[in-house]
UniProtKB/TrEMBL annotation:
<keyword id="KW-0444">Lipid biosynthesis</keyword>
<feature type="binding site">
    <location>
        <begin position="263"/>
        <end position="264"/>
    </location>
    <ligand>
        <name>substrate</name>
    </ligand>
</feature>
<feature type="binding site">
    <location>
        <position position="19"/>
    </location>
    <ligand>
        <name>NADPH</name>
    </ligand>
</feature>
<dbReference type="GO" id="GO:0047952">
    <property type="term" value="F:glycerol-3-phosphate dehydrogenase [NAD(P)+] activity"/>
</dbReference>
<dbReference type="Pfam" id="PF07479">
    <property type="entry name" value="NAD_Gly3P_dh_C"/>
</dbReference>
<dbReference type="GO" id="GO:0051287">
    <property type="term" value="F:NAD binding"/>
</dbReference>
<keyword id="KW-0594">Phospholipid biosynthesis</keyword>
<comment type="function">
    <text>Catalyzes the reduction of the glycolytic intermediate dihydroxyacetone phosphate (DHAP) to sn-glycerol 3-phosphate (G3P), the key precursor for phospholipid synthesis.</text>
</comment>
<feature type="binding site">
    <location>
        <position position="114"/>
    </location>
    <ligand>
        <name>sn-glycerol 3-phosphate</name>
    </ligand>
</feature>
<feature type="binding site">
    <location>
        <position position="199"/>
    </location>
    <ligand>
        <name>sn-glycerol 3-phosphate</name>
    </ligand>
</feature>
<keyword id="KW-0443">Lipid metabolism</keyword>
<feature type="binding site">
    <location>
        <position position="263"/>
    </location>
    <ligand>
        <name>NAD(+)</name>
    </ligand>
</feature>
<protein>
    <recommendedName>
        <fullName>Glycerol-3-phosphate dehydrogenase [NAD(P)+]</fullName>
        <ecNumber>1.1.1.94</ecNumber>
    </recommendedName>
</protein>
<dbReference type="Pfam" id="PF01210">
    <property type="entry name" value="NAD_Gly3P_dh_N"/>
</dbReference>
<keyword id="KW-0520">NAD</keyword>
<dbReference type="GO" id="GO:0008654">
    <property type="term" value="P:phospholipid biosynthetic process"/>
</dbReference>
<dbReference type="GO" id="GO:0046168">
    <property type="term" value="P:glycerol-3-phosphate catabolic process"/>
</dbReference>
């Protein structure tokens, strides 16, 4: 393909080697980049380099030959034209701090993590900017309806890359776009990041709803009113409301709330049977971003004086001992109100 030839010989670094990081690294490799996937786990690096597999996160899939792994940060970033950060939100600052001494000023920086930093409540572009010594406007974010399990198998996928710098957004678009991975650009970084983070909360709720045996009516209502909460908080944080009607908003929300691949949906479904949160997270064996995001969003709703009833009830289930069924009863028993909010 023309796109693949155009990228030939270029270097890209990807952090870290989870399912989504590996899938996106594979896209870059198939587009002609020489990709180094950074991991702390030496055994995982060896498996990727010798067997071309990442069996823990994406079993049964062969990775491209041009995708290699390393445990050395300096090696990963040597001559890299593109650095993609896909670390969990809780680890993003530490990974960026380790990468900073080896990052060139000209390296295109992108992240694909959906969450807020615990404690500070900062978006990932802000965290990266602080640690890498850049302006947030120089960092792009890739988001949208995209499960790693489908991307790695070249299933048709469409996402969005957002940056205040149109040139950076278009560079990222060119790097990732191919016959099965379509990329749009969007200048609304805040909207794309907020949508990507908060949809994980609603997916937890969708899993709870399904786990309790409620039907499609309940899940449709949850998704729709969840989108209202995303829009409410996002616009309060400076986002463009139109973003929430796009791929990063309703697109990602639908796929995360309805798919068997969704970690957050699976975790919510497990919680519905009364399993303690710690047990659920241990059984999952992977990061469930929606849990930490629920706490962050609960605090952001207070900070921005925004009503987020679904988030509030999930917070009670996750951190205050409320039962899932009580949470649903509380939502259904709220005072009557209008569906469409008045804009003043």
């Amino acid at each position: 393909m023309t796109e693949t030839k155009a990228q030939a010989g270029r270097r890209a670094a990807v952090f870290v080697a989870g399912s989504w990081g590996t899938a996106l690294a594979s896209v870059l490799a198939q587009n002609g980049f020489d990709v180094l996937l950074w991991t702390r786990n030496a055994d995982q690096a060896e498996q990727i380099n010798t067997k071309h597999e990442n069996s823990k996160y994406l079993p049964g899939v062969k990775l491209p030959q041009s995708l290699r792994a390393t445990t050395e940060m300096k090696e990963a970033l040597q001559n890299a034209e593109l650095a993609l950060f896909v670390a969990p939100s809780a680890a993003m600052r530490e990974v960026a701090k380790q990468a900073a001494p080896f990052m060139k000023e000209t390296t295109l920086c992108i992240h694909a993590t959906k969450g807020f930093e615990t404690g500070t409540l900062k978006r990932m572009t802000t965290v990266l900017a602080e640690e890498l010594g850049r302006s947030p406007d120089q960092i792009a974010v890739l988001s949208g309806p995209s499960h790693a399990e489908e991307v790695i198998r070249k299933q048709p996928t469409t996402v969005v890359v957002a940056s205040a710098d149109l040139e950076a957004a278009e560079q990222a678009q060119d790097a990732f776009m191919n016959a099965y991975f379509r990329v749009y650009t969007n200048p609304d970084v805040a909207g794309v990041e907020v949508a990507g983070a908060i949809k994980n909360i609603i997916a937890l709720g969708a899993g709870l709803s399904d786990g309790l045996g409620f039907g499609d009516n309940a899940k449709a209502a949850l998704i729709t009113r969840g989108l209202a909460e995303i829009s409410r908080l996002g616009t309060a944080m400076g986002a463009n409301p139109l973003t929430f009607a796009g791929l990063a908003g309703v697109g990602d929300l639908v796929v995360t709330c309805t798919s068997k691949h969704s970690r957050n949906w699976r975790a919510g479904s497990m919680l519905a049977d009364g399993s303690p949160l710690d047990d659920v997270l241990e059984r999952m064996g992977m990061v469930v971003e929606g849990v930490k995001t629920t706490r962050a969003a609960y605090e952001l709703a207070s900070r921005y004086d925004v009503e987020m009833p679904i988030t509030a009830q999930l917070y009670q289930v996750l951190f205050a001992g409320s039962s899932p069924r009580t949470a649903v009863e509380n939502l259904m028993g709220r005072l009557k109100t209008h569906e469409i909010e008045q804009i003043e």
